[in-house]
Amino acid sequence: MTLTAPKTALPPAPLSGRGGRPGRQTAARREALTGYLFTAPTVIGFLVFVLGPLVAALYLSLTKYNILTAPKFVGFDNYVRMFRDERLATTYGNTVLYVGAAVVLINAFALLFAVLINQRLPRALTYVFRSAYFFPYLVALVYVSIIWQALFQKDTGILNYYLTALGGERIDWLNSSEFSKVSVIIVDTWRNVGFAMLIYVAALQEVPKDMVEAARMDGANEWQIFRRITLPMISQATFFNITITIIGAFQIYESIIVLTRGGPGDASRSVVMYIAEVAFNKFDMGYASAIAVTLFLIIMLVTMVQFRLRKSWVNNE
């Protein structure tokens, strides 16, 4: 009997001189390159239109710059100046009022309309109501403000026509220090309530029907079901709407320009409108940049606080 050595399997020959797999490496590189190409427009847009202007504003806020001459470094003088600016305090007060009114009114009306639309209605009526409430959001705010400016006219406006028909007195909506802010709040609410309503409608449709039916069988009335079941289940939509509303209200600008131009005086002027005035009417770019930086920090701080507190009241996280 002849003994033979056992045959051992030889490792496959490498596909390349370095022992790698160039086919897979090439595919991975192509996939990575494709991903970079798809994300490049967003990254470039962020760098050019967001991060770049932010860095420029931070730098200019530390300088005295009037566009005509080179920026002169002044440190924190622009920030110290803000504490002595009474007009800035007034505009911040107006802006905080707009934010509070927007959060309360937009979310209250949006939730009310969403609950009404979510009732058992014919599908055609549901589509009609959704479109009617959402349509103002599709129209540019400038055009919406122009329409409302005509409605708010003291002598020819339709609002005062019905007020006098009901026995009331005409209101100078656009030139009164008291009602000029009210007119801005009305327009802002009317225009933005439709978007918030759609978010609430989508959230209401996700509320489990069996949970609601079980609560009814246990004897709960509609208010108890809404408060104990519906509101907690749509808390994520509520958080989203409140966050978006606050950020948008802090930047309110177009409607004030069209309706009241910030007047009378500074009665309805917002912070963003004041920044534009300081920057492009007075050419004080350094001070305007400092105000813009503080507004950015306030919005960021408020948003961070909201995200910090959401776990205490937002369910289904």
UniProtKB/TrEMBL annotation:
<feature type="transmembrane region" description="Helical">
    <location>
        <begin position="287"/>
        <end position="307"/>
    </location>
</feature>
<dbReference type="InterPro" id="IPR051393">
    <property type="entry name" value="ABC_transporter_permease"/>
</dbReference>
<dbReference type="InterPro" id="IPR035906">
    <property type="entry name" value="MetI-like_sf"/>
</dbReference>
<keyword id="KW-0812">Transmembrane</keyword>
<feature type="domain" description="ABC transmembrane type-1">
    <location>
        <begin position="92"/>
        <end position="306"/>
    </location>
</feature>
<keyword id="KW-0813">Transport</keyword>
<keyword id="KW-1003">Cell membrane</keyword>
<feature type="transmembrane region" description="Helical">
    <location>
        <begin position="128"/>
        <end position="151"/>
    </location>
</feature>
<keyword id="KW-1133">Transmembrane helix</keyword>
<protein>
    <submittedName>
        <fullName>Sugar ABC transporter permease</fullName>
    </submittedName>
</protein>
<comment type="similarity">
    <text>Belongs to the binding-protein-dependent transport system permease family.</text>
</comment>
<feature type="transmembrane region" description="Helical">
    <location>
        <begin position="33"/>
        <end position="60"/>
    </location>
</feature>
<feature type="transmembrane region" description="Helical">
    <location>
        <begin position="96"/>
        <end position="116"/>
    </location>
</feature>
<dbReference type="Pfam" id="PF00528">
    <property type="entry name" value="BPD_transp_1"/>
</dbReference>
<dbReference type="InterPro" id="IPR000515">
    <property type="entry name" value="MetI-like"/>
</dbReference>
<keyword id="KW-0472">Membrane</keyword>
<feature type="region of interest" description="Disordered">
    <location>
        <begin position="1"/>
        <end position="24"/>
    </location>
</feature>
<feature type="transmembrane region" description="Helical">
    <location>
        <begin position="189"/>
        <end position="208"/>
    </location>
</feature>
<feature type="transmembrane region" description="Helical">
    <location>
        <begin position="229"/>
        <end position="253"/>
    </location>
</feature>
